[in-house]
Amino acid sequence: MLFPVYWMLNNSLTRDEDMRRTPPSFFPAHPTLDGYRAVLDQQLPYLGTSLLVGLGTVLLTVVIAAPAGYALGLLRPRGSGALSFLLLAAQMIPGIIMAMGFYAIYLNLGVLNTLPGLILADSTLAVPFGVLIFTAFMAGIPRELLQASRVDGAGTFRTFWSIVLPISRNSVVTVSLFAFLWSWSDFIFASTLDGGGRYRPITLGIYHYIGNNNQQWNAIMAAAVVASVPTTLILIGAQRYIAAGATAGAVKD
User: What gap in Å lies between CA 95 and CA 116, rounded to an integer?
Assistant: First the structure.
């Protein structure tokens, strides 16, 4: 599992002409930082765009999924079971089909090649997952807490904001992380909905190094390494929250 990561690091430090040698070298014979210089010179705007799209996707996903999970897990409105099934089924739709649908809609609305359009599209992947995670976690919150808040005069929204959401911190972190990772690594929506825009994410930035007659593998691998650093740091820092949030609701007393 770690070998592709090692090979990515190895190639990011290897000159393009050395990569064509056979057999391939498992260590750079003539290490170079040209790929990383190219990344710093050319890819920083793409990284900034990916960061904006990722944060926007996280915000939109949590704003929609957390109240929906609260309603499905605790308020139990009529039809909640059917809605949960539809959310589960929505995750089975291939991304390319959704991208074509978004393209037709965005073309009519005039929002192609825009950051809000890409954020909205990426959120459609994360919201169903987020709702299911929030529902499973919030369904296990003791009803006594909700009853106590109502006795104190708190309404439905105040109960959600002041009691349920703080308790659901692990789920918030888990959903936020997965939403960020999906948007950060998205290529289908980016190439379809924002391929010709001024602000393009890092996945398209890496793709630009690949041409019909030239592939800059040194720069490609260096860009991949740089793009992996933020997500790796986030995963390491949020590991314990992910484990707690992803398993919430899996075991019932």
Answer: 18
